[in-house]
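Open question from group meeting: does this chain pack into something compact, or does most of it stay loose? Before anyone orders reagents, we agreed to write out a predicted structure and look at it together. Recording both the input and the output here so the notebook holds the full record.
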Amino acid sequence: MTNREDRMRRAYGVSGKLFRERLAQERPEDADELSRIEPAEVVVVSGQYDHMHLVLETSQVPFLHLRPSQLAGADWDRMQVLLINCPGHLPDDALERIAPWVRKGGYLLTTDWALKHVIQPAFPGTIRHNGQQSADCVVRVQATADRDDPLLEGFLEDGRDPLWWLETASYPIEVLDSERVRVLMRSGEVGTRLGSDPIVVTFDEGEGTVLHMMSHLYLQRGDVRDQRDAQPAMDYMAQNLKVGADELLGLADSARDLNAAEVSAAMGKQRILSNQILSSRQKQRKRKESS
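Structure tokens returned:
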């Protein structure tokens, strides 16, 4: 493991602990909802480049981890959330089941190259790869959805645009159906460089929902863009996240040399993922109550 990978692993460990403690304190009903998930309800399809299962592990969300060849044989009736890691190469018998499953109420989350390999064939006419590819860089993103949007709850910080790491050859997102597709986050930097600025988009399909993001959910690094990003993680957590002295003491070993950018980026990705799962659970429950 490289030093960079070790730092991000520790950043996710720190943010995961904070996430669970804060959720229990501030949104106990959501913490209870996550604790009642059964593994078969959240399925992660392994990929070569993204590793969403590592985010779920640090958040302590139960899940089932499958290889692409195993997906067609999964329990599609029990599955509520399907996470497909980049690159999203799936056998035909699995790919053809995705759209019907979403229409019945499933929640699909995909990353980066899965745009071309999953979303375009399963949901034509919604979004597509614009033909460009990114360089390895970190950009600032701006939320275009309301701050209170449940999909972004807890992700945004006052006075701070989140950082988003684009790995080499990430696929920019072109929106084809602007009436149907909702852009949750954009990046002016990406729009200028690559001709298309959406970073995270979502759309409904029947009773279900699709969410796709450019680049990866699991970060291999967090980059410093300014003095605020370079702030020691312990100071950042105390000042911006209002973490108390006792909590800080418990995090000191893991966060000893981390910076604000690393912890903020890891926490942001955890919140995005947990918000998607909670949104799916709430929709499922409402459908059962109305039926």
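Observations to bring back to the group:
The longest strand covers residues 198-205.
The radius of gyration is 18 Å.
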